[in-house]
Specification:
The chain has 318 residues and is an all-beta fold. It has no helices and 28 strands. 0% of the residues lie in helices and 52% in strands. This is WD40 repeat-like protein.
């Protein structure tokens, strides 16, 4: 099977691309439906695509025919924009975060809502801990929270910059560290300790100014050697990570003409895909920092900066 990537846009379309040829192999048009595509996620077994569309999540079969646009299941229950969507590693459940101040867990086997967390502030991002027993979220109130799935409670809370909204969080694939980026372009890094050692769960390691303008996304590579940060300044920055969690600016990826909203690494960390309000997605080679493919086709991105409504977003998953 060829490597594919998926993009979604304010034009209400979801597009599947053959990564190396740049050919759009399938378009989900969602005729008659309202709502922009906020976030995308692909299930661990590569069978399903979850698309967060305004207040709901549609689940599509990836192997369906090129003309298939009907979801196999739809999850509804949020009352405001869904800002984050992630699969459990075994594909048993899906987690969503929303501007309605809740985090919800959906059972993919029954199609029902399994659990609901009240965050008390609009949620900007949620990621599943590699141990699959915890969630890490961030919100508009400037808080980062750890949620224990077995006890159904928030067990830890961090406020690195007061009430400055935290836009994005990312966890190392081995669960060793957490990185968060805020609305002022600053990144914060914590080492995650095993509490059985008697050390604090989250140990602050460093902080640095990644961008001078609004940060939209931060993402650790699968091999935990790099951090990618996306911004309103139209650039993507690649930071190398030392064994002692020192972050050094390695490359600045330039080419997008408007805000860069999202990014995704290939499984081997050799490539990065980015998506922008300039209506394009780009495939970058990490070694050279050059664009090796550009994907054109979406006819709406965004000319506004209505951040909380996500009207400018072009999302991508690789």
């Amino acid at each position: 099977m060829s490597v594919i990537l998926v993009t979604g846009s304010y034009d209400h379309e979801i597009r599947f691309w053959e990564a190396w040829s740049g050919i759009c192999s399938r378009t989900i048009t969602r005729s008659g439906e309202t709502g922009q595509v906020n976030r995308l996620a692909i299930s661990p077994d590569k069978r399903y695509l979850a698309a967060a569309i305004h207040k709901k999540v549609n689940i599509y079969e990836i192997a369906s025919s090129a003309s298939a646009s009907t979801p196999v299941v739809t999850f509804e229950g949020h009352t405001n924009n869904i800002t984050s969507v992630s699969f459990h590693s075994q594909g048993k459940w899906l987690v969503t975060g929303s501007e309605d101040k809740t985090i919800k867990i959906w059972d993919l086997r029954t199609g029902n809502l399994h659990r609901n967390y009240n965050n008390e502030a609009p949620v900007n991002d949620v990621c599943v801990h590699p141990n699959q027993g915890e969630l890490i979220s961030c919100d508009q109130a400037g808080r980062i929270k750890q949620w224990d799935l077995s006890d159904n409670i928030c067990t830890h809370e961090l406020t690195p910059a007061g009430d400055v909204p935290i836009r994005s969080v990312t966890l190392a694939s081995d669960g060793s560290c957490l990185v968060a980026g805020n609305n002022k372009g600053k990144c914060y890094v914590w080492k995650i300790n095993d509490e059985s050692t008697g050390q604090p769960r989250f140990q602050a390691v460093t902080k640095f100014q990644a961008h001078s303008k609004y940060l939209t996304r931060c993402l650790l590579s699968p091999d935990v050697k790099y951090l990618a940060t996306c911004s309103a300044d139209t650039t993507v920055k690649i930071w190398s990570i030392s064994p002692h969690y020192e972050f050094k600016l390695e490359k600045i990826l330039q080419g997008h003409q408007r805000w860069v909203w999202d990014c995704a690494f290939s499984a081997d960390s050799a490539y990065l895909v980015t998506a922008s309000s300039d209506h394009t997605a780009r495939l970058w080679e990490m070694a050279s920092g050059l664009t090796v493919r550009q994907y054109n086709g979406h006819h709406k991105g965004g000319t506004k900066s209505t951040l909380n409504k996500y009207q400018d977003v072009l999302k991508v998953f690789f």
